[in-house]
Amino acid sequence: MILYRLRCDHGHEFEEWFGNSAEYETRATAGTLTCPECGSSSVSKAIMAPSLGRTKAAEPPPACPSQGCGGCAFANQH
What we know:
It contains 1 helix and 3 strands, in the order ββαβ. With 78 residues, it is α+β, with helices and mostly antiparallel strands.
């Protein structure tokens, strides 16, 4: 199953579940997708934010051990 956020040509946004991406394409081409608010069959995918898992924040790099930073491992990184 896949959840798509959809938008009609009047700007109404709604979500609908599909068995797979091919099902969305088939129904969109056939005009059987309709906006629940206005009934428009001119429907397309709306932009969705990806669902990302939260991870532990990366630790900052260690401070440069040299004030001059001419040739240490951190050269040109600050």
